[in-house]
Amino acid sequence: MRSLSIMIAATALASCTTSSQQADYDQRAEARLAQALAGKVAGRPIDCLPTYRSGDLVRIDDNTALFRDGPNRVYRNELHGFCNGLDDQTNTLVTTSHSGRLCRGDIARVVDLQSGMTVGSCVIGDFVPYTKAG
């Protein structure tokens, strides 16, 4: 019985640590997003981006990516699925386009840059343009 109590206490402590770490992660992601969209106004969502505009990816979190289009416009995309592990140094988002465009509904893979292995995948959402106000 005592070992069961210790296991429950350890599990509770671990979940607190995980919740705290997740909250820190979420706050950092929110701050990155706020900084990237500062002074910009959201426009009407579009379905596709030409692939020449899809190369400048900025990861916000596992479900949010920004595609930069010069200094005055950025496209926000909410990814659907499991793009867990997407980061700026070890993993990257890889898409395949046969139409010359990256579109809502396209499947993207998260690929480990060192091994080349797929470690996740997700579906591209709508592209919401944010343009510098004024």
Task: Give the helices and strands as they follow along the chain.
Answer: HEEEEEEEEEEE
The assigned structural class equals alpha+beta
Spatially, the strands of the biggest sheet line up as: 1-11-5-4-3
Q: Overall 3D geometry? A: globular
Number of helices: 1
Number of strands: 11
Unreliable residue stretches? 4-14
What percentage of residues falls in helices of 4 or more residues?
25-40%
Average pLDDT score = 81
Percent in strands: 35-45%
Number of domains: 1
The biggest beta sheet reads: 5 strands, antiparallel
Radius of gyration in whole Å, from Cα?
18 Å
List the helices and strands and how they pair.
Layout: H1 2-37, E1 40-42, E2 48-50, E3 57-61, E4 64-68, E5 73-78, E6 80-82, E7 91-95, E8 101-103, E9 107-112, E10 118-123, E11 127-132
Antiparallel strand pairs: 1-11, 2-8, 3-4, 4-5, 5-11, 6-10, 7-9, 9-10
Entry summary:
The protein has 134 residues and is an alpha+beta fold. 27% of the residues lie in helices and 38% in strands.
How does this structure look, described?
There is one protein chain. This protein has 134 residues and is an alpha+beta fold. The chain has one domain. The chain has one helix and eleven strands; from the N terminus they run H-E-E-E-E-E-E-E-E-E-E-E. The chain has one helix at residues 2-37; strands at 40-42, 48-50, 57-61, 64-68, 73-78, 80-82, 91-95, 101-103, 107-112, 118-123, 127-132. The chain has a five-stranded antiparallel beta sheet with strand order 1-11-5-4-3. Strands 6-10-9-7 form a four-stranded antiparallel beta sheet, with no helix packed on it. Strands 2-8 form a two-stranded antiparallel sheet. Strand 4 (64-68) and strand 5 form a beta hairpin. It is globular and about 45 Å long. It starts with a helix and ends with a strand.
